[in-house]
Structures are given as C-alpha cells and as structure tokens.
# Entry
Amino acid sequence: MAPVIQPTGDSKFESLVDKTCKEDYALHPEQELRFEVEKGEYAKIQVLEGNAELFGTELIKQKPYFFNGGKGYGIFTWSSCKVRITGKTESAYISKDTPMVQYLNVSFAIEGLRKKAEEREDQVDNQGNPLDARGPRVMVVGGTDVGKTTLCRLLLNYGVRLGRRPVFIDLDVGQQSIGIPGSIGALMVERPADPVEGFDMKAPIVYHYGHTTPNANFKLYSALITRIQDLYNNKCHYNQKVHHSGCVINTCGWVNRKGYDTLLETAKTFEADVVLCLDAERLYQDLVRDLPDFVNIMLLKKSPGVLTRSKEQRREAREALIREYYDGPRGQFFPHSFDVPFDNIDIFKIGTPSLPNSALPIGTTMGDTETKLMSVAPSTDIMNHILAVSRAETVEEELTETNVSGFVVVKAVDEERRVMTVKSPAPHPLIGRYMLLSTLRYMD
Ligand SMILES: Nc1ncnc2c1ncn2[C@@H]1O[C@H](COP(=O)(O)OP(=O)(O)OP(=O)(O)O)[C@@H](O)[C@H]1O
Ligand SMILES: [Mg+2]
# Structure
C-alpha cells in the first residue's frame, strides 16, 4: 500500500519559513550544530560553505532543506562548514562534545568485518567445508532516549556510502521507524537516508504486532523475531551483497528483567556478533557475562544532543510517527478515505483475553492462547483503531506471521449498512481481505 504523493515543490515550505529569524553558524572540525525547530514551524537549513552531514547523510551545499518541529537534529562536520538556519527554532547551538569519532571507529570496525566476510566467500576449511561468508549482525541496545535509532541510521548511512547493502531491522515496537508503532519491520538500505524524510520506504517488510511493548505479548513478539530472522537469512542466501553487508538491528529501550531476557533472546535468534550498548554500563556488564564469547560487545557514549522525552512526549512522538505514515514527514502524502463493506473483510485479533490459570482447561497455560486468532465482528468498538492489512490470501496461511501490506484506521462504522469507513495511505480498493486489529488507536 504505497502512499500517494502530492506534487508539492519546496516552494510550499519556503513560504512557511519565518524569514525574520536568520542566523549563520561557523563550525570547526568535529563540531556539531544541534537544533530543534519550534513546534508548528518550518526552518530552512543551508550549508553555505564546507562539508557537513546529518546523522551520516552528506548535505548538499546551498541546497535548502526544510525541517519541522518535534525532533532534534545534529549537523556534524569532519572538516569545517558554515550553516544558515532561517526560521523559528526552539534551540540551536554548536557543540564540540560529540561521540562521532567513537561512532566512526565502530563503523570502520564493522566495515572490516564485512571485508573479512567477503574474503571467506568461496573458501573452504581443512575438511573442505565452505566458510561462512556472513557479514556482521550488529545489534544496538540501550535504555530509552540514548540515540539508538539515530546510531542505526548513522551506521546504515556509512555502510551504504561505502557501497554496501545493509539491512535495517527495527524491533522497537514503541518508536518504530520502518512500519508504524505496534509493528516491526525490515528494510534493505540502498541509498543514504534523505536528511528530512529518512530512508526510502518503497519496499519494507512489515509485521503486525499490535502493542507498544514486547511484554504485552511475549510469545507473539518472539515468533515475529524468529520470522523476520528467517526472512533475513533467506535474503542473504540469494543475495551475496546483502549477505556480506550484514544488518543493523534496533531494539526496544526496555532493558530490565524480561526486557533484558528479550534482548538476550534476540541476540541468540539473530546470532548477533556485534552488540553496541549505548550509555548503560550495567547492561554492558550483564551482556558480557551472558552472551557467548564470539560476540563483540562495545560500550558506547550517548550524544549529549539526544533529546530526552517524558512519557507524554513519547506518546506524542508515537502519534507523530503514525501521522507521518499517512500524511508524509512534511504533509506531502495524500491519504484516502473510503467505505469497506463488512462482507469484504475478516478482522482478527491476536491473543485471547488473559484468564487466571484456574479458569483454563487442564493442561493448558496462558502461553497457548497468546498467538491464537480471534475473530472480531466490526462494530463501533473498533473506531479509531489501526487495522493491519495482511498479505495472506487464505485464512489457512499463518496469519499471525504473514507480513502486512499496510495499515488503515477505522474512521466510522455503520452497523446498519454493514460498512466501515477507513483512512488508508493508498486508494480504494483494499488489497487484502484479512485484517489484524491493533490495540493502538489514531485520531487526527
Ligand atoms: N546529535 C544529536 N543532535 C541533536 N538531536 C539528536 C542527536 N542525536 C539524536 N537526536 C534526537 O534525539 C531524539 C531521540 O533520539 P533517538 O530517537 O535516536 O533515541 P532512541 O534511543 O532511539 O529513543 P527511543 O528510546 O524513543 O527509541 C530524536 O529526535 C533525534 O533526532
Ligand atoms: Mg528509537
């Protein structure tokens, strides 16, 4: 369900910028200009001189980039540069306190592992068995708001700039950056992220999960991780370049108790050989103790530029991610609204309601019910809920583990006429009969 894009030139944004606010910033080598645009405003960024990059994407000199509020940005230079910001900002300052040298060294180390993987291709061991030519499987872990997603983007950008085809796997169901919150996704990265719009999302593989934390349904979360790992292995099997390039896996910021167990399980499932632990010494020590010896675990610094968000701001950030899915990062998509007859669809929910063990049939546990499909009759109860449109063609296919083509939101339900109105990124008709109900709701 690819979105329909409105032809908006940059002129639309130019007129939204407050020209009375303009400032030039001169950056020395290894300095970063950090800024946050005021909420509801647009700011124009231009590199006037020198070389600069934003989270690993090179910025083109003189080209205007239009950013809106809600996120933090860091423009970094290895040499020096002059940057102009036109428009209202919440904050804008130059800092020389960045972990970029450390991150660049990590990126070089990962590239070294890719080269070694390439060298192993077509080689055999003493017994004549082919050597494993798999590239590095890098997992990024850490608490919330430490810059995990940004580090993934940086490593992927550096990888692709070296001619690699790394796969990005985002397992963070709360602040998901490939699908929408409540899903997990994988994406082969073929070009650096656009500074404003991020990675090109033309062909992601996305799975519905339906909650914002792994502890809402561990069994389903684990099953999906295994599924996405199988898919990745399969891709590696057919595409040598992807195989050598390895992957970068983003994880949830929940790192205590069961969250920690989930990280260990993820590392095991993917056979991660590099784990980058951001700003969490205790977590790092625990991982060193619990992960096998072949895993290279590194403790990395957090950038002081990373924004810290309250619970309420995290909820707003989640809503903003859903809004971006429908409207585009800068409102350039054109979402559709249309009626869907009840007879054309079947809605399911994954997992039956939790019951005390005493209420379950003898010999069963709650775990048995966590991945069960339950039919849901369309009613006003599902108003504003997100529905994932499954790619499954028959209900016999494993619906819980089939990827989805996209997500719609239920905007109205007319039980008498037996139709519901949905908001969709793509025009009518829906390409799929089977829908999975998310606990997430979205109201625009
Ligand atoms: N160097 C930087 N300068 C300015 N802003 C930054 C910098 N690094 C990250 N940010 C911003 O800080 C915010 C949080 O960063 P990020 O999303 O990478 O953290 P995270 O650990 O993935 O958070 P979460 O736990 O919510 O997934 C984002 O808006 C990001 O753009
Ligand atoms: Mg994140």
Summary: The two ends are 20 Å apart (CA to CA).
